[in-house]
Amino acid sequence: MKKIAFSLLAVVAAVVVVLVAQKRPHEISVLPLPVSVQASGDEFKLSASTGFLAEGAGEAGRIAADLEAEFAARTGLEFTEPQQEGKNILFVLEDGDENGSEAYHISVTKDQVVVKAEAPAGLYYAGRTLGQLLFQQGHSWVLPTCEIADAPRFAYRGVMLDVTRHFFTVEDVKRFIDRIADLKLNTLHLHLTDDQGWRIEIKSWPELTAVGAACEVGEGDGGFYTQEEFKEIVRYAAEHYVTVIPEVDMPGHTNAALVSYAELNADGKKKEPYRGIKVGFSTLDTRKEATYRFVDDVVREISALYPAEYFHVGGDESRVTEEEDYIYFMNRVKPIVNKYGKKLIGWEEVANAAVSSGDVIQIWKDRQNIDLAFSKGAKVLISPAEHAYLDMQYDSTSRIGLHWKGYVELDRAYNWDPAEVANVEGDEQIFGVESALWTETVENFDDISYLTFPRLAGHAEIGWSPRESRDWDGYTKRLVRYAPRLEAAGVAFYRSPLIEWN
Q1: Annotation says 171 is catalytic
Q2: Are 256 and 196 in contact (CB under 8 A)?
Q3: pLDDT digits over 136-179, tens only?
Q4: One of 68, 70, 263, 317 is an active-site residue; which one?
């Protein structure tokens, strides 16, 4: 009898353990890491009658419909008209979130999912989070019950794509936007002009694309975006709450312009097309009035194509421009940018000019330019090459990439902080964080994928998540859980040996 009683007790104990285990909170994994997550150990089960609803029309309704389409594609469920008392997912816009337009709150119970935000961007980012929470349990698709409150650390979280060394089509850029938006990055900086090619139509200077767009690094044919194509990129990005900021690099990195128009050269002669990767050999003639007519037309035409408040003037590595001429040039360009309703962003060398409050200096190499920018009232955009340049090789075996700033494995890409780079206590003087993909060795979308992902996920977390919450071990676990999203999107990402992917 004692043996029977003991056996029954063991069975009961085992059943209790199983039941407790079933109620254990599902491990919630989101990239970038939210501010606050509380799991409650149950599930919201999707069915064909699950409704994706929005209070009011407009953007909230579109975001709900887009999430419905995404979930239908992933689950195979054919969502029908929602039942009045069914288990629904509700998107609500409401005023009063002190954390700003990108903040959101998600409440998942067994019976419903409620998403709240002050602005559509917050609802959109909540949708990105729900996409990561969805998982298959047996034959069912479920969301773990939880409460998530979230908001970004920095208002500007960007990535630069160089389309000059190698040109990428509108469709490639759209695919890139899909992926960066899924990581809650909100800015795409397009590097549109350089020595190798001019990639944006300027109707008042047609030779820029007729001649200057015709080559790239190596043997390719180059290419360019018409103004209508550029507006299509801007439109598509806006649907994903991504702002496009164009860069026209000057006065250096301008050989493609000098190939196109002799009057921009000091000697009045056209330059030869360039297919190499050396930098610092070209410059506009900063003392010719023709140069400023050119700049005015370029800024005027491009500024009319997009709504963002910033225009990037480049300004880096202008090594054959005398310092006095460089400063003179930038001091004349800044008012042109302002005249067309834009504020100035420039690479760190621009800090030597008469920048002021409202201007942004993008730091990539020399820390002394941070102090110089601060002394003039400008803010800094943090893009340290040794951490944030996506064109750096992972290690000596990387199939493409450069390593002039060393190898940048996933740990080096993740284990740094913008405030430490800027040597400040708080974030007030930091405009934001931006990764940069230069494309000397990048020829197609698989190349973009290989160098960008998954490093960009770490940069996204640096820009979004609270500094004190981030840690390498937790990040790597979440990265493993995020990898299937990259696989499903056909992203040929780098499988670092530092990560236990299986």
Answers
A1: no
A2: yes
A3: 999 999 999 999 999 999 999 999 999 999 999 999 999 999 99
A4: 317
